[in-house]
Amino acid sequence: MTYPIVIIPIIVGCATQSIKFLLSAVRHKKIKLEFIFISGHMPSAHTAFVVSLVAVTAFFDGIFSTTFMISFVLAYIVIYDALKIRVNIGFNGKVINKLVREIPEIRNNEYPILRERVGHKPLEVFIGAVLGFVLTIFLIILLEKL
Fold this sequence. Notes:
By secondary structure, the protein is an all-alpha fold. Helices cover 71% and strands 0% of the residues.
């Protein structure tokens, strides 16, 4: 593997998003292509990706490297966004959807229904972080054996 610092997090992110796809298909009892790109829900693929990035940079470059610090700060921003900012966007969507349904003057097709579940619950982020770390360690061990 030529670039493990890049390839491993991509594999981890795709694997986690695939798990989310499967869980969504089971939950809704049908397979829809849109489940591949769904945001929010269990587990957080963004968190898995950035935790994987932090883990591979720590392993290959060390915890005192510039790449590790950059990946750590990026992970903090992504996780904060998932837990705080996107959750609030979902709350805003819920309120706006309620207004559109209740106010006759704006209850028409001019206003689309907004997604109300955009961010993540803390457990979804935690599971994404654990998956990201465990899958990364597994891939590093696999890479070392090759």
